[in-house]
């Protein structure tokens, strides 16, 4: 009696190791089991029994990874003591693999975090390279059974193209189908015309044998992915959608061999080859469809953000990221994400790489140091020289990191559940139909069973949600509403309450009436104040920067200190300046005014008083949002409350003098009441509230408001059209439900015809990809028509 290894589930053929009342096939599997138990990760086996991978002991090949040139090419990011690397690991196959690989920090203290991309079979790891060499990390993974594949292709990190082996399998199936039809034609013609041709009768066994030879590689090579997927599912006690397909292939192939051996008939070899040809054709179509829905898209169509370019004379110009080139100089302000790799020219760099590494510590930088894209400056303004073209796909990858996703998708879970029970139901129908037809027409039973198993594949069902939401995502992006992922579209459709930050969201960033009250300020002080205003992305700072008419010069700032919601201070040429609220400058703010207060060496100079200019069209916007509860938050005082009450007469709540923590708590209070909340803010002082909300929408006019706290980046000019975007997301969910209905209708009709015996397996194989094409065509047309209702596309 054969035994299976407790860890990997494979048959124990040679070495049998007993440990802890369990048996293992090798010392590697035993070692992995011990490691998991020592680190309290025995739940790995509870999730999927015998789902481990047999470890690979040939790990000496990874020593070359520590060579500086190879290290730099393979790793994504390396700075200080932190390195981020992405490995290709093809053996990742189930939920246990994901769970174990994302628990690496528990197994090894030098690993900070790890994240699996199951679709691409990749693992991203952040680790301390001074304590754990890259080669040691690769060996560690190999000893766990997850040996990384490292070659030129994976090192180049190119986007994945269609798998060439799939095209080869399709070509083999197509060749066998075409030639099989050719060799079977004489026998079919002989039977249809009622002829008794001597030559056909003499050579029919040769033709049948040739068809067997053609079909065999199709079954065992072209269909291998279906067998592998079904086997993995069954090993892990999961009946996936490939199980009925494999059963149908086995039934047809076995029945065909039986007919040829007993000289009963020609079998179904030609039909079987055609079946797999059309199924693989559908699979290629589906892979291309999913590939089109990968969201590492070109940055030109993804972000409504610009960057401040400076020339050698200090002149500033806001330009699109797409216009940046190597050698350009850019300005990065406090709390801005650095969009490109660059060399620090001037300023005190204090880079927060938590966006890349997951760690909150900052790294100091001095002139001449390299700074990676994705870092965030926390301090005074920096001037960088661009050394690489914009690689926004990498920032997109960072923005889409699981660490910044707050919820699991409901629709995907629903789709998976439906597919799971759907498969069980189909197998039940197949058994019932097989029993019935075996008593009525035993020969036809094989055709009926095969047709049922093939036509009922729920591929169209699985394709419905991602393709519809992917279409909507691109349409929203073309209209300057940049959604992080399709899950966000689902969440937007469920929103009940919308919270608006006032400054910079429903007001313009730059257009304000400003006047000054206070002591006379000398021209030199004005120049320094204007230079300091460059350090901040706050809407009032930007408005004041535009208002002050003096020579635009840059003065290096020292000891920069920013207190969110209060203001910031810095020393310029030994003199300390403070810019911010009244309380931050030791003054009592007036109740009915919005102002920026200025101090020099703790001496109050004066204040710049603002009268905000609201975006045009706000009254119509809030009228169109009548089905939502509206709340307004502001860090300013209540001076604008009267105007806001006129603009938004049905506002549910308003709160003023809100610091970042107060905004976050306000959102949490609404959620505690069971409300689904969307928050619109500028992405700076609102970062906490944006992250806390069910959907965080960062509003950007012409600055780099790229933030991991937001789910959406929205062009500021489009705020007054928010109702259109929300309506389109609701329409998207309606379209998804319609596609579900189409998928079910197709399966009900197809199954009915197949059960009654009126459908051949070949026709079923043709209908299977047609159902997917129908869903794609419907979603394309439906999303286009619904989008035209709101936007010009």
UniProtKB/TrEMBL annotation:
Keyword Cell membrane: yes
P-type ATPase A domain ranges (all copies): 308-399
InterPro entries reported for this sequence: ATPase-cat-bd (IPR021993), ATPase_P-typ_cyto_dom_N (IPR023299), ATPase_P-typ_P_site (IPR018303), ATPase_P-typ_TM_dom_sf (IPR023298), ATPase_P-typ_transduc_dom_A_sf (IPR008250), ATPase_P-type_domA (IPR059000), HAD-like_sf (IPR036412), HAD_sf (IPR023214)
Places the protein is found: Cell membrane
This protein's UniProt keywords: Cell membrane, Hydrolase, Ion transport, Magnesium, Membrane, Metal-binding, Phosphoprotein, Translocase, Transmembrane, Transmembrane helix, Transport
GO biological process: copper ion homeostasis
Coiled-coil annotated residue ranges, if any: none
GO (cellular component) term, any one: plasma membrane
Transmembrane segments: 166-186, 206-227, 239-258, 264-285, 421-439, 445-469, 734-756, 762-785
GO molecular function, a single term: ATP binding
Residues covered by the Putative metal-binding domain: 4-73
Membrane topology annotation: Multi-pass membrane protein
Family: Belongs to the cation transport ATPase (P-type) (TC 3.A.3) family. Type IB subfamily.
Matches recorded under PANTHER family: ATP7, ISOFORM B (PTHR43520), CATION-TRANSPORTING P-TYPE ATPASE-RELATED (PTHR43520:SF5)
Name of the protein in question: HAD family hydrolase
